[in-house]
Amino acid sequence: MHDGVQRLDLAGQPPVDHQVLDLPISELGQRLRDGRLSAVALVRATLARIAARDPDILSFYRVLAETALREAEAADADLAAGIDRGPLHGIPVGIKDLIDVAGVPTTANAPGRADALAEQDAEVVRRLRAAGAIIMGKLATYEWATVGPDRRGLFPPARNPWNPEHITGGSSSGCAAAVAGGMLRITVGTDTGGSVRGPSFYCGTVGLKPTFGLVPTDGVLELAPSLDHIGPIAASTAEAALTLDVLAGLSGERSAMRRLGEPVSGLRIGYARDWFASDAQTMPAVRDAVDAAVSTLSGQGALVTEVALPDYPDVEVAVAAILHAESFRLHATALRDHPQAYGRRAFLSLAAGVALSGDEVDKARAAGRAFRAAVDDLLDQHDVLITVGALTTALPAAPFEKEAQWTPMRTIGFNVSGHPVLALPVGFHQGLPIGMQIVGRHHAEALVVQFGHAIEVATDFALQRPPGLR
Description:
Layout: H1 25-34, H2 39-57, E1 60-63, H3 65-80, E2 92-96, H4 123-130, E3 134-139, H5 173-180, E4 186-191, H6 197-203, E5 206-209, E6 229-234, H7 237-248, E7 268-271, H8 284-299, E8 303-306, H9 312-337, H10 344-351, H11 358-381, E9 384-388, H12 398-402, H13 413-417, E10 421-429, E11 432-440, H14 445-458
Parallel strand pairs: 2-3, 2-4, 7-8, 7-9
Antiparallel strand pairs: 1-3, 4-6, 5-6, 5-10, 9-11, 10-11
Helix pairs in contact: 2-3, 4-7, 9-10, 9-11
């Protein structure tokens, strides 16, 4: 926890059972409703665990202890009065520090935004509050969601709970670290090139990037508007889907939860193994883990066919050009007039778009449309596509802290195509998680959730937590 924490003295309060925080939201909700647990006790347990664990993990920029307890008291009062706001009623949640929470700075980890107080909640935060969720605080990000980890930022970088000497994997770093560290069951992050999914691959959490435009971005700092997505990082597929329903206002036949638990027998998987299996950067353990996960689904009756996606390096170059062009356009004036408001690495990343010509950007957008069409064609023949998340487990942080590095992930293409993608753990290698992606048709979040849940019930990867946590 860093400067600006709302400090709360818990001395003299009843003892709290930290183990309750390891229960799924469904069980927490049942206990909140039958009187075995109060929202106030749940928030106190959360605060105590944050105090014990986060000094080593650094996932929180600001813990909103006092306001969280007030919200918990209101949640308890509502339930006592027969007012039930839904499955997230009384459940703690953390918010990436690119997303506005009224009365709290939205820093983006940028020097020029240390005191950038948000006047009102982002729409996603408003929806969470309306659903009864308790906002616990603001979570770590790479500066302006660009590159990191960078020890020279406004705040120190979040650490990977599985091994603090390795990266968290993307700008929603605090979101995944808080979940992997057992401090929260659900968090809300952003994903422009893979920043919900990358931290999930590397920290062993579940990340759900929804269909482009499904979740409103009002009150969220932009990086590249045609690529920006808002999505949950959670401890399980069900909890990610539950959170997405609230963020996107989904229910009934549109709910991301509606196919949860249904068998995958007879459903068709297009396995994009060509995207990673022969790549020299791919760890054999990663290849084997993804193969095993697909075999698990095949063993449940899913029909698996290997498919070919367009060459990833070409896709990555094209979408990176779009990202750089759009982010430079947003920041050009401030980069010129207030360079001191940026850290060196973020400045260089955002300024990179100055070198791109209009023709180059047009060609990149055409390549993006072609990639989307190729994915759509494959999804006309298959219910989901499956491929690797990252080619390696989380890499050592030291080289990234010296200079910006590009991690070997397979994510950014689905930002330009806008398809929903579920990232989930499918194995471990030398104590570090391995992640996989399940890609669905536009607005078919329920299908990717169905497949992710099928893997979870057949394995224990999503249940495992880092050893040695206090």
